[in-house]
Amino acid sequence: MAPQLRKSAAKASKPAAKAKPNGKGKATAAGAAKTGALTKKTDKVGTSPSGLQLLNKDGNSRRKVLILYTGGTIGMSDIGGTLGLVPGSLLKQLQSLQELNQMKMPQCLFDEFSPILDSADMCPEDWCKIAGVIEKAYYEYDGFVVLHGTDTMAYTASALSFMLEQLAKPVVLTGSQLPFAEALTDARQNLLGAIVFAGLADLSEVCIFFGGKLFRGNRTKKVDATSLEAFQSPNYPHLAELGTDINIYRRRLSDPPRGRFRVHKIHVTQIVVMWVIPGFSDEFFECLVKSKSVKGVVLMLYGCGNAPARKVSFLKCLRKMVDAGIVVVACSQCSTGKVVLEKYAVGKAFSECGVISANDMTTEATVAKLAYLMSKGLSSEDCRKAMQQNLRGEMSTEMNTLRINEPITDLSSRMS
């Protein structure tokens, strides 16, 4: 059964307003023509050779959600005793999902990647493909659901958050730990919840919905390989939760955009993540200095940004990397907390070498942000400066920390 809205928030729905170029409604024909949006046929929006498929005829036609299936466990089938991807199989199952026909559900159209992918095979080229579908269909839909494998979902969500600048509509990623066809699957609730949130006018950011909670995409990590609550947001509270009611914590949401929607591409992939471990050898880092292809290094340090103080050669190696134009960003090996390089003497020495702090960003967000900035053609110095700025809510600042800690009184939303 689809979740019901809190009665206190149920209001008479209003007709959809004409959208501005960055608005949340549907664009006018003239506006769509200027932006290159489709105005005649939506079956050319996606990537599937068969075109878009309508999943529900009785849904709330005032709002439209595009569901893009990229692959992952949610659509897998048993193939000779092992799980595998079968094109078209998930569509057949969704077409019989009766919950989609409830009146409060938005109208849902389905598209499928060709080919569909295990999320372990996802790369920046596929991020661009997803962003391209959203860009092409942006003024035709009120929200987007991206069905994705769980293993790299946090990377994709983080990347999309940077690629989709001035986003005024919800983009919700979800998947499942068990295939849709299995009896005890988490796929149905994850999918229905993602559709509900993608159909809301309150959201204007990239999110992950999983295990009953809505998270900011670039704050999320996969923390459990088998649990049905596989994702957490270690350093930022969840945005909403779905139970018998839909509770939205409005002060935690991103502010509505003020500019025109733009899509950026990510094509730089010369980034490595290096973990500091007891007794590590400098030789690995020396190889990075000698390499002409590495442009960014995410350095996983202990705690708040600590590392062995006796390895003077390591500090020299870091200085060589920075001097060679490699952007070195320090992340914590801990799930929660933030990197404060000035807290310990060795961390301060790192900072003096040109290493910058990732603050409380996840590793996934740090990698995606670094790739995004480098793809813009910024110099290493400009990249270092931008990495320390809050671009899409990916890191905590004094302002948003105060904001999320304010008392919450309005916990409901409406689907109108």
TrEMBL record:
Where the record annotates domain Asparaginase/glutaminase C-terminal, the positions are 271-387
Q: Supply the name of the protein.
A: asparaginase
InterPro entries xrefs: AsnA_fam, Asp/glu_Ase-like_sf, Asparaginase/glutaminase-like, Asparaginase/glutaminase_AS2, Asparaginase_C, L-asparaginase_C, L-asparaginase_I, L-asparaginase_N
Q: Which UniProt keywords apply?
A: Hydrolase
Enzyme active site:
73 (o-isoaspartyl threonine intermediate), 150
What GO biological process, any one, is recorded here? aspartate family amino acid metabolic process
The reactions it catalyses are:
L-asparagine + H2O = L-aspartate + NH4(+)
Q: Which family does it belong to?
A: Belongs to the asparaginase 1 family.
EC id: 3.5.1.1
The answer to whether the entry has keyword Lyase is: no
Instruction: Specify which residues bind substrate according to the UniProt entry for this protein.
Output: 119, 150-151
Query: Which leading EC class covers this enzyme?
Result: hydrolase
Residue ranges annotated for the L-asparaginase N-terminal domain, each copy included: 64-251
A GO MF annotation of the entry reads: asparaginase activity
Which Pfam families does the UniProt record give?
Asparaginase (PF00710), Asparaginase_C (PF17763)
Report biased composition (Low complexity) as residue ranges: 10-39
Q: Which Gene3D superfamilies match?
A: 3.40.50.40, L-asparaginase, N-terminal domain
Q: Where is this region: Disordered?
A: 1-54
